[in-house]
Amino acid sequence: MLAAPPSMSPSQPVDAHTFPSTMRPQAPLKRAHTTTTPTEQTTTTPSPPTKRPKLATSSSATANPLELKPLGNLIFRPSAHLTRTQGLGILSILPDELLLSHIFSALDGEDLVRAQGVSKAFFGWTRVEGIWKGLYIERTRGRLHRWRGSWRASYVRTFLLPPSESSDGDEPLPTSLITTPSHHSDVLFQPCLCAAFDPCRFFRSNNFVSNIPRISGKNLLPSDLPQEPCILTDLMTTWSAIDPTSTHQWTLPRLASRFPNTLFRAEATLTTLPSYETYHDRCELDESPLYLFDSEYVNKTQSLDAEGKNLGLGGDYEVPLCFGEDLFGVMEGERPDYRWLIVGPTRSGSVSGSRAQGSDSLRLTFSCLFPKTWHQDPNGTSAWNAITTGSKAWIMFPPSLTPPGVHVSEDQGQVEAPLALSEWFMSYWDYAVGTYGPQGKDAALRDRMKVGICREGEVFYVPSGWWHIVVNLEPSIAVTQNYVSQRELASVLRFMRDRPDQVSGFKRPRTEQDQTRELVQKEDCDELVSDVFELFVQGLKKEHGEMVEKALEEIGGMKKAVSSVSGRKEGNGVHDEKSRTKGMWEKVKEDQGDEGGFSFGFGGEEFEKEDEEGGSRS
């Protein structure tokens, strides 16, 4: 049950429009606040960054249009419980969790509209954006078309209203102004907290200390890269993508104008850039905004002029010299996905390379349909992330230290963590900073968490195995690539050899995919070819024989030793002190069972892929 914040007087209720920054709800922890974007300046950095202008101010649209209250506020208004008991009738005997997962989530769009007229309580449950999000994506077969300001409005205007009414621009629906201030529910109030999440408040100058160094990347060689994360400058000066005088500068309006008909992947949806731009600018009610994260952007936009110059997105930037060595190149067409175009509004971020983890259908309703919190880059690779527009906050933990709130299975194949960025920040940020930050109390743990802000024109370096989350402090566009150099080759080979079921991104050649279509339908579309480890080693031996022999010797050869699966070990994302440093999330799981993470496979995976292939070029 969510309680009133301790900073408020005992007689003062939580107002629906006031999310005090000191609020500490319970199980799961949330912290509420208003949505602002102040100027951020680090107080202490190894190399002070150039002063930046104020971050863009986000929309003032309320994240709680129904004026819902947390359950704990019933103490100030006991009679309000009648809204639930009388409004739900016999259904009031069910807990809110079951009402969501087994009653209202089972209704289709037409039934939800009918049910909203039963009572205020029914109206509140039929307005859950997470339900409408799933219905919209299912009904559109994974396509994001015209956005109307919310998932509910988009569904109703697209599928339920007659054409004469569905085209009334962005006028609010007749029911959009109805409020239910007497409705108290933690389950319904949680998405409001997430939608009001303001990442900038965690990085204000008065309480934020960066401990990720900035160094010049000019003339830097792969062997010169440090063993820890860093922010590199002077690497993007010649890129058209950040040149304000170039028509190829990467801003969302310009990209939408250049490629108006090309379909891009945005989590569980495919969308054109004009459609995504509309969503991007008006997604205040979405607790976990869609993140455009597309691995085929180079092929989708590629075109050549008369001189053979690439006019697509791949021609707008160049791989920095220090990241030029990529040994996965020996696999040519069978190499894994390795580069992504990233676009997202404020609050969005951190989509990992793997599809999902855990199993919790209830929390799936409120999720973004893809996991968006802590992850390690796939296949043991390192990565670089170059920002062409905006700024991103990075939080990092070394491979040997599992972040607070994250559970890793014995074989490290399953990761359970809060589903949304906002959940982790509001539940674990203070604990993480106080324990592992630059000013941590325990000297043995101090400064092990790395935090920093990467800005426009800078490149963030992610070493192999490092845990990280990333959140946009303002609308941002970036390009990122994963790679394998000589430095991490042994780690990548060990990962591929010892954990083949966790290797992701590899594709069969198209002819082979066609022959095994039935198998692919039953497996994830990124399922590994069984002998990919051997193929990679064979390719390396042709071009880098001495290098691969040395790496194989380091990991003990082509065959996995029996002792290597004996349990958890240092250096593979496992925190040996976790048993004595459990956070609230772990304690809640012990009390309530398996409630973290989820496993999600969208029913339209095959036809989404076909749509993407059929309409991917402008």
From TrEMBL:
<dbReference type="InterPro" id="IPR003347">
    <property type="entry name" value="JmjC_dom"/>
</dbReference>
<feature type="compositionally biased region" description="Low complexity">
    <location>
        <begin position="34"/>
        <end position="45"/>
    </location>
</feature>
<protein>
    <submittedName>
        <fullName>BQ5605_C019g08967 protein</fullName>
    </submittedName>
</protein>
<dbReference type="Pfam" id="PF12937">
    <property type="entry name" value="F-box-like"/>
</dbReference>
<feature type="compositionally biased region" description="Gly residues">
    <location>
        <begin position="595"/>
        <end position="604"/>
    </location>
</feature>
<dbReference type="InterPro" id="IPR036047">
    <property type="entry name" value="F-box-like_dom_sf"/>
</dbReference>
<dbReference type="GO" id="GO:0000987">
    <property type="term" value="F:cis-regulatory region sequence-specific DNA binding"/>
</dbReference>
<dbReference type="GO" id="GO:0005634">
    <property type="term" value="C:nucleus"/>
</dbReference>
<feature type="compositionally biased region" description="Basic and acidic residues">
    <location>
        <begin position="567"/>
        <end position="591"/>
    </location>
</feature>
<dbReference type="Pfam" id="PF02373">
    <property type="entry name" value="JmjC"/>
</dbReference>
<feature type="domain" description="JmjC">
    <location>
        <begin position="308"/>
        <end position="500"/>
    </location>
</feature>
<dbReference type="InterPro" id="IPR001810">
    <property type="entry name" value="F-box_dom"/>
</dbReference>
<dbReference type="InterPro" id="IPR050910">
    <property type="entry name" value="JMJD6_ArgDemeth/LysHydrox"/>
</dbReference>
<feature type="region of interest" description="Disordered">
    <location>
        <begin position="563"/>
        <end position="618"/>
    </location>
</feature>
<feature type="region of interest" description="Disordered">
    <location>
        <begin position="1"/>
        <end position="63"/>
    </location>
</feature>
<feature type="compositionally biased region" description="Acidic residues">
    <location>
        <begin position="605"/>
        <end position="618"/>
    </location>
</feature>
